[in-house]
Write a structure and sequence with these properties.
homotrimer, 29% helix
Chain lengths: 407, 407, 407
């Protein structure tokens, strides 16, 4: 019993290694080493150094943005300040600078004629076709309102009157070019619990107040001149101010956390967000409507409707951070080692097919066993044994010669 | 010296390949090829074609959304237009359509009785228990205000008076069903620097103005009828308009950038965002309070408090893009090759245990070396050599026979 | 012809397995098993159990947040309610609680002197240097306005007059501490189409109304006391209320979807969002300006400018979910198996270099073939054959002995 257990234990603590054939041939040897060198170079240079396959990457960036606009502009003969032209006022990820406002003052609820010539009419039938339309300035009642003596009039609407006329020519606020945007962006990589801000902690308050962002000379200054940003995107400022538009301020964080944390800095770039729609003629520009509400002495509400053409800024923060981690390293390393091994597939093909003496190499590498052969060993009739050539006898047990000096 | 270096160089340029046993057996041969076929089929079909394991994926989508609502509705006998019912007005990722507004007009700072019966009282003690409550319409002073001759009254509050009474019955704006939402969504995959818009660049302005989104007949039309969206989520429009609610408009981008970029198109679907809370009785619906401020002639500020029930739309953009990349391809390929190799583990088990002649195959595959054997070789006493059976002699150096024709 | 095809088919259905050397040595055997055990332990314990390398992970979380603040506070001798101090009012991911408001009432368009001493002057030249400045309260005209009899005055500005004086001392609204924030967060993992809410579906309306979040005793209560949140971030409430600040409420979802879905619950934590800027003296605090617009009887617009110091809350939702998937499991498994195989590299080094009898083991493991040897086999001149030692003859065809009992 004990000897059986001992045998099993001894059988367990053995070491199995592959039997190899070492081919001392210059041609295959050199090809082998060159292939190995190429594979190793590829892995070290591209996979490890360039692609950093030994790192785990966090792409779920957590970001908080605070913005503040500064500057004064003229619009409708009034000086506009931040409280007037920045919407929404909280200074968040998205904000608009109103550059042209078409105001329709003193609107009261009631009925009145449409303003647009699209809704001109000479009898009620011209207006009933517009019933339920969303394109008017109010609910189309179906009546045609004509002034005394005139042959054509406009359809009647119910709603806020008088109707807005957005065809008036108004000079946009071109001063927007000189406005500045201060951006405070703090990010966090939750996987690594690393927090960073978009300007260095060594920057003093005075330095920040004076600087203006420039991609080369002041890449970390958090104050952006609107004119510079627009120019970078290739926009024509006066056209943009007149029609409105959407600008993306991309803040890109690409951090290698195996390096010093101080190298984890943002990169800014600026894009036209409506670029994918450049070919469609619709919806160039950006505008929206809002109203300010007032009350008359006797309590009736009235409003000033604003159709605001605005430059909308979207601060888009993206980023990823990498840090050494054992699992990707292991997977990459094992892949690398195995790939080096796979290199031998190529060499095998060359060795066994294209080299002089390929048949001999084949004979060396492969040891054939056929079923017939095995059968012959299982049923060793004395006669058949004799029929074998001398020296071949060992083929039944070659390699299993358990050489025990004791016997 | 030179010959030593030469020896090292020659030793380096060798090629080592594993010695293999080729088993010419139908049973194992067929099993082997079937296992290999299964593994290869799995890798080609599932891993490569279906799961696209040869691609690197970018999930950090960058998105910008512009929305515009159109339509008119009646509320409190007034016609409401976009400037009245869309909050916030900028047309961003999130916007609310106010469907029911409970207005409390002409509120001034002061003291007054609570409106809710929850705060009814017959003496001050009934009110002091509410001190510091957040559920009232103002700061509870602790006094009980009773009209002359009445036995019960309401607790006094300090704040904006008169207190809001949100129990009034108001007809919600059911016209919301016919409103339309225009969504302009431009995205970017930063890893590949690919930019896309949510409607094809071949769509003309006229086409866009006329169409309405339909999952089958108009899947790329960017104009959505609110009624369709609500119906798709399974909402009852009149209930939603009365209580408010949160709707998610998901825009899903799944792009295979190895194909033509024109196939990179969005898919829309609509969800109830409060679905996870369906079982909790709390907070069904969605409402918030805001105020409009006015001034009397003598400069006193007063306000109109709005409790607004709204349908809130959240445009949720998700997506990922894949493009061929060498590293995942390599890892997958090496995994595939190695897996094919691992298939031989199964065959080995069959060959060495369950096949007729297993012992013989084992003998062929494994060559045993014991410590004793090695020891015998190291210390070759003439006598011990003799004790070996003839023909076994070669076991000390088999395979290492350096055959040099020169000797 | 048929026999050739038959030969090819028979050649195809063969099984090739590596020939192995089994070393029955205690030392190498034990080292081998220990190395294998270590590698397996590492993979099972760290890679599979701890790092869950068998899962595919979804990091593109889709989130929707609804917030509602409750509470009353005193400011400028007025009671402020939610409609007064929460901006924006919709209760979205980001909201501000205004804690200190500096109001400049009755501003009309016109010209007036600056308020700040920074713009004091004794002649026009002192003011012309400020032309184009963004730091004033309006457009600097370049004039120096001096009261009769005084030597020093202030520069003239054009814009909203009178100019704001933000140096006034105002008591912040410290009641903010007792405000409560209700957060409703529903998330979705698009990859798995799993939707979750931030409080359990078993929580009743009454339970939610009564509870207050506490990390230990009430970790799933969705109602947060502002004072608790601020304390957790280490903020001094009175300082924060006076200067404003940015607070992050992080909701972290880490879900193992192989477990019951009920274990997929959020974790909350609270951070100072301006922590990365703690060292910069600039921009501590948070404030923004907005205006309320009024009209006089004769229709002139005037405004009340508000410089609002606010506590801004950003609800930052992050998360990832993992679920068993075949591809990462396969890759990890293959990596594990291959790594176990790589363990033999270490054993080989020990076996072939440091063990007693290393040369003998080497002889066993490696079978050398030289080009000369192969050449000798290819050109078998009778004489050269004789020059070989007897018994070595088989080196030309060893392993390729095709043993056919029929011959």
């Amino acid at each position: 019993m004990a000897s059986v257990v001992w045998g099993l234990v001894a059988g367990f603590f053995t070491y199995e290694t592959t039997k190899s054939v070492v081919v001392k041939s210059w041609s295959v040897g050199i090809i082998n080493r060159i292939v190995q060198l190429l594979i190793i170079t590829y892995f070290v240079g591209w996979v490890f150094i360039h692609e950093k396959a030994y790192q785990v990457t966090d792409t779920g960036i957590e970001s908080s943005v605070m913005t503040k606009v500064k500057g004064f502009g003229y619009q409708n003969n009034r000086v506009m300040d931040v409280a007037d032209y920045v919407v929404p006022s909280q200074g968040s990820t998205m904000f608009c600078i109103l550059t042209k406002i078409i105001m329709t003052e003193n609107q009261f609820q009631g009925v009145c004629p449409e303003s647009s010539d699209k809704f001109s009419c000479d009898r009620d039938e011209n207006c009933t076709k517009w019933l339920g339309s969303n394109l008017s300035n109010g609910v189309i009642t179906g009546k045609c309102l004509k002034s005394f003596n005139e042959s054509r009039g406009h359809c009647e609407i119910e709603g806020w009157c008088p109707a807005e006329n957005d065809q008036v020519k108004i000079k946009p606020m071109l001063d927007v070019e000189n406005f500045t945007i201060f951006i405070k962006n703090s990010i966090r990589f939750p996987l690594f619990n690393v927090t960073r801000g978009n300007f260095p902690s060594t920057m003093t308050s005075a330095e920040i107040k004076k600087c203006t962002y420039h991609p080369v000379s002041a890449p970390f200054c958090p104050i952006f001149r609107v004119g510079d940003v627009l120019q970078d995107t290739g926009h024509n400022v006066s056209e943009l101010a007149a029609k409105g538009g959407e600008i993306g301020i991309n803040i890109e964080w690409k951090c290698n956390l195996d390096q010093d944390i101080e190298y984890c800095v943002p990169k800014y770039f600026f894009t036209k967000l409506d670029a994918p729609f450049a070919k469609n003629s619709i919806s160039t520009g950006y505008n929206f409507r809002f109203a300010k509400y007032f009350k008359t002495e006797n309590g009736t509400e009235f409003r000033t409707l604003h159709k605001a053409y605005a430059i909308r800024f979207d601060i888009l923060v993206t980023g990823n951070a990498g840090r050494f981690s054992t699992i990707p390293t292991l997977i990459s390393l094992v892949t690398a080692f195995t790939s080096v091994g796979l290199g031998s597939v190529l060499c095998d093909i060359i060795l066994l097919n294209f080299l002089k003496g390929a048949e001999q190499y084949k004979a060396k590498k492969f040891e054939e066993v056929t079923e017939a052969q095995i059968e012959a060993c299982i049923t060793p009739s004395p006669g058949s044994q004799l029929s074998l050539r001398p020296g071949v006898k060992s083929s039944c047990d070659s390699g299993a010669i358990s050489l025990s000096p004791s016997d």
